[in-house]
Amino acid sequence: MGFFDRLRQKRETETLEQALRANPSPALHVELAEHLIAAGDVERAFEIARAGKEAFPASEAVFQLYASLKKRQSQDQIRALQRQIETAPSASTYGQLAALYREVHEEERAIDLCREAIEKYPADDGPHQVLGEIRLARFHAEKHRRDGRLAIDHLEKAAERNEKNYKALLALARLYLEIGAVGHCLKRVRQIQTFAPADPALSELLDRAAACPKPETEDLDELLRQVESAGKMTVRIDATRTKKAPRTTQKKRLAARTGFDPERVEREIDSLRHLSGVSAVGFLGEDGRLLAFRGWEGEKRDFPSGARMAPGVAVPPAEGAKPPRGSARQDAGRTGALGRSGESSQGAPARSGGRGEGHGWPEQAAAEGAEARGEADRMSAERAAEDDPVNRSRPPRPEASPSRGPGWPEQGEQRGRSDDWRRARAVGQGGTEAMSAGRFEEGIAEFAGSAATHSQKLDIGTLVSAEIAGPFGQILVYHLEKAVLGLYLTEPQPPDRIGGQVRHFVDRCYAGPPADEGGEE
Amino acid sequence: MMERILATLNRAVGVKGSLIVHRDGIVVKSLLGPDMDTESVSALAAATIHATRRSLARMGLSAFSRLVLTATHGKMIFVDVDPTYLVVVTRRDINLDLTLLEIEGAAYKLRNLGRILTG
User: Fold this and answer.
1) What pLDDT, on the 0 to 100 scale, is given for residue A296?
2) How far is CA B104 from the centre of its chain?
3) Is A67 an 8 Å CB contact of chain B?
4) Residue of B40, B59, B74 with shortest CB distance to A440
């Protein structure tokens, strides 16, 4: 590197430092640290990452950078401790290595090591403390009562084995207060006071405990259950958590507060049609109801996405608009009795896609299109609608309209009914029966609900995504904040490959200001 | 033989344990880690399989051959080894592409074993 390069690099570093001082943010911490790594100043980069981690404890990006740098720095120490465990193991060596693994974000290794240590040194408090801290961090993040219970169990075991284990006792006191078990908290505070009476952390805890209303119960399992169902701690005592969160966390909070904007979902969902092999997409809200649905099986890709209505229903063209290319008869011929492009092999009609259906001329499309489609199509559409559980309770279809053929709504009715008729449309194939929006909604909602519950019970944490593969293709389910996104792909794809587009779609569907206007970072 | 297949699979990077479970929840063979209770895991695995099959049936789709649940602290992979399922619990941070090769290999061996046993 030449003189001028060094000079330029120094100036860039100074500019970033000034920006960080003026307006500290997780992104600037990461940028400056990465800049310093590129310049070869790893120690300084580590200091910046550590400062960023302290200032923004909820930032995933800062934490990842800190963890990777810490891991880099700790490699020698980790190797030395590993050698020591192989040659001359001791309880403290296990404890140190487990704590180090935890610090560099290798929780699974830390857990494995702690279990090994508990077997070899059952009287040692270190492994229980590390396990308790890991479970506590998970409980803070996800509020699952199982994590809370295990955190309490391990920390209690650590305190039992070493009555002066300050970290375990303080963590217990804080956790008890957070879940509202004031009596348990005070008991642990008194225990710490026997050997650290002047600790300022204790006076803060005592103040908070005094301000708390007396809980109805001190049953820990019941209090943990209350935290899990509320999704938040009963008492908030960690001041660091109130600091400005990174953009992703803010988005999540925004979603948690406001949910998704159905209009945005409806608008943005079409962006997913470009995913390779995608056949149907459904977006379900918090209550498991379908907010938006698209099926593209056999649909003409150049057809406007606004045409979402049952076969035979025509939309009046804008005033002065010219007829579309190709007559309705031609289209009807292509998509109707001679074999509709969007029709499944079992005769269920696909999503409306012919020009004659959605954007043709009312008279031509309604009369000629309905004739050409023939009775068989309508029958199969009716069957699909009747099979659909959503449609079962619907009143019988209106009598035949002379201009539109039997069974389809009058033009005036179509707008209000489009959602209902949309549900009746069969879109995909690959199984034993045609799939409709209603079926997709029911299937995805049921699966997402049970998978989320089971993943918690199976102790693998909160469900993030699920992939179901079979002869039919692939179904991907993304468990979002207050929503579920389901994708049906007839050509299976590695979930990672489409993850980016899905994330982009999700970001654009949050209620409130669009993600691009947030400007937190 | 089944135990050997599961033991080999458990040696793969990131695999925490595996079991073979019947659709009705009966454990055929289990090699789970010390922190996992075989009975509850197998019951929940069977419930997951049942719920997934029911959901697919609702959508008019046939049975699944593979299910991958990704959660914040781990993954669970279910592979159909007719008439049973191979269930594998892994860490969250594994490279699933590589581990899936190991899992599919074990599933293939189990299928062959099943064919031999049933004649």
Assistant:
1) 73
2) 10
3) no
4) B59
Strands B27-31 and B66-71: unpaired
* Residue in chain A lying closest to B15 (CA): A108
Interface test with A, best of B16, B61, B85 (most A CBs within 10 A): B61
* CA distance linking residue A136 with residue A128, whole number of Å: 12
Q: Is B119 on the interface with A (CB under 8 A)?
A: no
What is residue A1's predicted lDDT score, i.e. its pLDDT? 63
Q: Does B62 contact chain A (CB < 8 Å)?
A: yes
What does the angle CA B50 – CA B54 – CA B59 come to, to the nearest 5 degrees?
150
User: Which residue carries 């049970």 as its tokens?
Assistant: A450
A245 interfaces chain B, CB cutoff of 8 Å? no
Residue B38 touches partner A, C-beta closer than 8 Å: no
Buried-exposed string B41-66: b where 16+ CB fall within 10 A, e elsewhere: bbbbbbbbbebbbebbbbbbbebbbb
Beta strands in A73-186 (DSSP E): none
Look up the ipTM and state it: 0.93
A431 touches chain B (CB under 8 A): yes
DSSP E strands in A46-198: the ranges are none
Confidence of residue B18 (pLDDT cuts 50, 70, 90): very high
Structure-block tokens of residue A321: 């608009």
pLDDT at site B119: 59
In chain A, pLDDT over 90 holds for what percent of residues? 7
Q: Is the pLDDT of residue A142 over 90?
A: no
The per-residue pLDDT for range A53-75, each reduced to its tens digit, is 888 776 777 887 888 888 888 88
A461 contacts B74? CB cut-off 8 A: yes
State residue A425's pLDDT score.
37
Selecting from B47, B56, B67 the residue whose C-beta is nearest the C-beta of A466 gives: B67
Q: Looking at residue A204, what is its pLDDT?
A: 82
Q: Which two tokens stand for residue A390?
A: 């959503």
